[in-house]
Design the sequence.
């Protein structure tokens, strides 16, 4: 994919998610939205917890929404923060993104759209951990159809 600007629908969805972020401890809001292979947009916000290890990042929330709806891949992701430069996904999120779409484009966008950086999941996580066995391939294809 070759774009000069992030997809407007993804920026809008990620911005709406950013507004809904639950970040009472850090105050650091993140919104993410992805365009799944099935053409639907899935969004997520970061959700903090008093037990910090139980907090969920926006990127993971979006991927979980996508996977829960039955989609198994995405082509583009927008992450919105109010930092300059825009914040990048953490290491755990990079691995989760790689699980579903190693070739996907990733846009890091500052709230309001002023600052943007285009990259890819592969570029964010070179040498990602990846199991190349039939179990992983079967899991990516979704649940078996009822017989």
Sequence:
């Amino acid at each position: 994919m070759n774009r000069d600007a992030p997809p407007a629908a993804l920026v809008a969805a990620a911005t709406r998610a950013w507004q809904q972020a639950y970040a009472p401890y850090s105050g650091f809001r993140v919104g993410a939205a992805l365009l799944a292979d099935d053409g639907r947009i899935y969004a997520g916000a970061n959700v903090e917890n008093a037990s910090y290890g139980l907090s969920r990042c926006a990127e993971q929330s979006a991927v979980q929404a996508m996977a829960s709806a039955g989609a198994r891949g995405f082509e583009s992701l927008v992450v919105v923060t109010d930092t300059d430069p825009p914040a990048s996904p953490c290491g755990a999120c990079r691995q989760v993104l790689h699980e579903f779409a190693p070739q996907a484009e990733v846009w890091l966008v500052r709230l309001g759209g002023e600052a943007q950086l285009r990259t890819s999941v592969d570029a964010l996580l070179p040498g990602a951990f990846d199991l190349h066995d039939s179990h992983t391939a079967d899991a990516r294809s979704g649940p078996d159809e009822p017989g």
Q: What stands out?
A: Residues 133-138 have pLDDT under 50 and may be disordered. The chain has one domain: 8-140. The CA atoms of residues 9 and 41 lie 8 Å apart.
